[in-house]
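#data-curation
PF: Archiving a pair of folding outputs for the training set. Convention for this channel: one message per protein, sequence first, structure tokens after, nothing in between. First:
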Amino acid sequence: MRARNRREATRGALVSRPKESRRRAPRVVVVGAGAFGGWSALFLRRRGARVTLVDTWGPGNSRASSGGETRVIRGSYGPDGIFTRMAARALTLWREAEKSWKKKLYHRTGALWMASDDESFVRSSVPMLRESRFRFEELSAAKLRKRYPQVNFEGVRWGLLENDAGYLLARRSCADVVEGLLSEGGRYIEAAAEPPDVSSNSAPPRSLRLSNGTNLEADLFVFACGPWLPTLFPDVVGTRIVSTRQDVLFFGTPAGDDRFSEMRLPIWLERPRFYGIPANERRGFKSADDTRGERFDPTDGDRRVSTTAVEEARKYLARRFPALKNAPLIESRVCQYENSPDQRFLVDRHPFAPNVWIVGGGSGHGFKHGPALGEMVADNVLERKPVEPLFSLSRFETTARDAPSSEGR
């Protein structure tokens, strides 16, 4: 009697199961293990897809836009509410990942915006921060000088301190995401992927050729290849994503002086050019110029920093952080932004291959949004949610709206 009841219960459970759950899980290949690709692969796997992640040089490698040690996470984007809302969601997901993986990925230092020549961006960010429940303070020039005496606030009228902002461990977290994918049943292959044959006359691709001689068969393909997207898809992406050279510098702080460490100083940003991260992880005081550099080849470009970049950074440090006027340059690197015309992301199907997705256009500010974007990509690819119009290919056919700020790599 009990056995018959168990069989009937099991049979009833099978009948009541939705049709979707009985379908064969789609096979998805994600190319690119940076912030966009890694998180997309992870969320695709969490939504039931059979996922293989592929990368040429590995997660967070030195050529990747997601390489390097640190990236800023903050919520200020002027009136562009979509990025503030995404940053809020991403921050929640970063914290959940830390708890789940028992690893430190996010350091809350706060981020100080110094309103000097043009305060419209900072001022217009306040309503969006409030709407997304980012904690912040507005500080007068007098309060700034009292709280941070190591900074020269000459010309700064007021400051906006984002209390929930901080920095993320970039290269390390890319590797952690891949480890998370593997622990949840995904696959990872380190190899170069050949561009698929996608044109108006070709059938949708069903496999991808790798440099190790193998073919990966799949139902869906996601290319999150950052600065390499224009090469992979010249007819569709072309100049809609342009890579620019960006120099990042680390200066040594005085021995025994912790005024420029993350314990005493927040991340700082001053439009329109410079931003930085206080000394952390036993590294120097990070300074970077957000001005778009010259066009750059992410594969073969020379990654030695320019003397001009060092000179300009020294001038800025001497003015804003006088004690660092003669600080030694102890480390440097050249990375790249991959910029879209309006600095928004690109998440859309290939127009000639409905099973091929293009994900990119980080534009210098994409890393922080990685988890939220990956969640969005998974829902788009698996047709749970429609493409966000602001991230679609079709938007390039209209006039670009005011661009968001990209400070905070």
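PF: Second:
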Amino acid sequence: MSTTEVNTKTLTGHRVLHYDDALDDAEWLAGMEVRTRGNWSYGQILKHMSLAMDTMIDGRPFKIPATIQFVFVC
């Protein structure tokens, strides 16, 4: 694994993933060797995507205290 950090803002050629294609895309990727282009490992990317999907479906796994919510709303 490379220790050189990649500036992901300058990368081009990103794949576009649409929600409806996510399962087909995941199954396709599971059957091949994956090479990442950024600073995260394949496992980190999958965990990030699964946490985002879980949050969209189930809501946040924690409750934000009212005092903090008040600060961000005002």
